[in-house]
């Protein structure tokens, strides 16, 4: 191996005992397995082998037991062209093991026994100093001691990738801010951001933004069959979604995550000028390849996968719009209070012209009032009485209100002028007698 190294992995190595069943057992339930396999695994070793199978020059920093399983694992790593000079076999401690059950639908549960992995410490970082200096990419997980893992990321000067798995409750804040690329699944994203869930792309965008605020340099959230979401601190206003690759047949999901991480490290190291979306798209392709095959390391694509469009296809990705929905909702809330105002506004707009017409119609009515004023001046009722004798009409106008009544009687009951004079004399004498 030359001086240059593509990927150095600091992590675990386990022997996996995989049992295939029709359905995963419920608590206390006994189910029959269809068959059983023994494979080499552990997140650290798996991801190292995944990168090596694609053609990356790799080195593993790990612990194995000085036992038959450990000896077999060392030979297997050499066959995969992994540098094992920093893989130490520990006396009196068994090689770590994992018990995995996989259903016909590809679902699984896993139980890990750390074994020799528990002895991986910060001293091993110092012991692998030359490999750390030569490598372009450092790959870590949470199966190893967290303090040792943080020490490894602090010492490394290249691109560090941390898979936040398996999920732990006591994760230090530095675990978020130390790596160059933080990779989390939906469960880890919800846990680290204290969100209720991360199921939709919008929720993933929100979670990625929170992780960036917490100090992450860049974040990849793996979303299963939805693909992956990416956001970086340099451009936190932009979040991209890289869809998952097609999986014709789901056989086993146990190796998909490690295939994704190994491929991601390989492409970041070999093609640093490509965009993160290129790297993620290629990793999605390798994960889909693994999903269609049984086993963990046996399901990883080989060098032929790195030479064809499996890893070099043009990435398809979408930009997840910012939480404009929230900003739009705020105006909508304002609009909800405004709709009564907004609704009247459009209503008046069409009604305003008619309203103006109504005002114009009301202006003509003021002119009509003057005509009625003229009518009382030329009242028709007074003229009708005068027509019989127009000359006498002015006389009743000069008299008071009381005389009109007698005048009316005179005109209606008196036949000639003599009688009128008699009546007048009688009327004038009557008050004199009374006095």
TrEMBL record:
<feature type="binding site">
    <location>
        <position position="143"/>
    </location>
    <ligand>
        <name>substrate</name>
    </ligand>
</feature>
<feature type="binding site">
    <location>
        <position position="293"/>
    </location>
    <ligand>
        <name>K(+)</name>
    </ligand>
</feature>
<feature type="binding site">
    <location>
        <begin position="42"/>
        <end position="46"/>
    </location>
    <ligand>
        <name>substrate</name>
    </ligand>
</feature>
<feature type="binding site">
    <location>
        <position position="254"/>
    </location>
    <ligand>
        <name>K(+)</name>
    </ligand>
</feature>
<feature type="domain" description="Carbohydrate kinase PfkB">
    <location>
        <begin position="6"/>
        <end position="301"/>
    </location>
</feature>
<comment type="function">
    <text>Catalyzes the phosphorylation of ribose at O-5 in a reaction requiring ATP and magnesium. The resulting D-ribose-5-phosphate can then be used either for sythesis of nucleotides, histidine, and tryptophan, or as a component of the pentose phosphate pathway.</text>
</comment>
<feature type="region of interest" description="Disordered">
    <location>
        <begin position="296"/>
        <end position="435"/>
    </location>
</feature>
<feature type="binding site">
    <location>
        <position position="284"/>
    </location>
    <ligand>
        <name>ATP</name>
    </ligand>
</feature>
<keyword id="KW-0539">Nucleus</keyword>
<feature type="binding site">
    <location>
        <begin position="257"/>
        <end position="258"/>
    </location>
    <ligand>
        <name>ATP</name>
    </ligand>
</feature>
<keyword id="KW-0119">Carbohydrate metabolism</keyword>
<dbReference type="Pfam" id="PF00294">
    <property type="entry name" value="PfkB"/>
</dbReference>
<feature type="compositionally biased region" description="Pro residues">
    <location>
        <begin position="341"/>
        <end position="352"/>
    </location>
</feature>
<dbReference type="GO" id="GO:0005829">
    <property type="term" value="C:cytosol"/>
</dbReference>
<dbReference type="GO" id="GO:0046872">
    <property type="term" value="F:metal ion binding"/>
</dbReference>
<feature type="binding site">
    <location>
        <position position="299"/>
    </location>
    <ligand>
        <name>K(+)</name>
    </ligand>
</feature>
<feature type="binding site">
    <location>
        <position position="185"/>
    </location>
    <ligand>
        <name>ATP</name>
    </ligand>
</feature>
<dbReference type="InterPro" id="IPR029056">
    <property type="entry name" value="Ribokinase-like"/>
</dbReference>
<dbReference type="GO" id="GO:0005524">
    <property type="term" value="F:ATP binding"/>
</dbReference>
<feature type="compositionally biased region" description="Basic and acidic residues">
    <location>
        <begin position="406"/>
        <end position="428"/>
    </location>
</feature>
<dbReference type="GO" id="GO:0005634">
    <property type="term" value="C:nucleus"/>
</dbReference>
<comment type="subunit">
    <text>Homodimer.</text>
</comment>
<feature type="binding site">
    <location>
        <position position="252"/>
    </location>
    <ligand>
        <name>K(+)</name>
    </ligand>
</feature>
<dbReference type="InterPro" id="IPR011877">
    <property type="entry name" value="Ribokinase"/>
</dbReference>
<feature type="compositionally biased region" description="Acidic residues">
    <location>
        <begin position="353"/>
        <end position="364"/>
    </location>
</feature>
<comment type="similarity">
    <text>Belongs to the carbohydrate kinase PfkB family. Ribokinase subfamily.</text>
</comment>
<dbReference type="InterPro" id="IPR011611">
    <property type="entry name" value="PfkB_dom"/>
</dbReference>
<keyword id="KW-0067">ATP-binding</keyword>
<keyword id="KW-0479">Metal-binding</keyword>
<feature type="binding site">
    <location>
        <position position="258"/>
    </location>
    <ligand>
        <name>substrate</name>
    </ligand>
</feature>
<feature type="binding site">
    <location>
        <begin position="222"/>
        <end position="227"/>
    </location>
    <ligand>
        <name>ATP</name>
    </ligand>
</feature>
<feature type="compositionally biased region" description="Pro residues">
    <location>
        <begin position="365"/>
        <end position="388"/>
    </location>
</feature>
<keyword id="KW-0418">Kinase</keyword>
<feature type="binding site">
    <location>
        <position position="295"/>
    </location>
    <ligand>
        <name>K(+)</name>
    </ligand>
</feature>
<keyword id="KW-0630">Potassium</keyword>
<dbReference type="GO" id="GO:0004747">
    <property type="term" value="F:ribokinase activity"/>
</dbReference>
<dbReference type="GO" id="GO:0019303">
    <property type="term" value="P:D-ribose catabolic process"/>
</dbReference>
<feature type="binding site">
    <location>
        <position position="290"/>
    </location>
    <ligand>
        <name>K(+)</name>
    </ligand>
</feature>
<keyword id="KW-0460">Magnesium</keyword>
<keyword id="KW-0963">Cytoplasm</keyword>
<dbReference type="InterPro" id="IPR002139">
    <property type="entry name" value="Ribo/fructo_kinase"/>
</dbReference>
<protein>
    <recommendedName>
        <fullName>Ribokinase</fullName>
        <ecNumber>2.7.1.15</ecNumber>
    </recommendedName>
</protein>
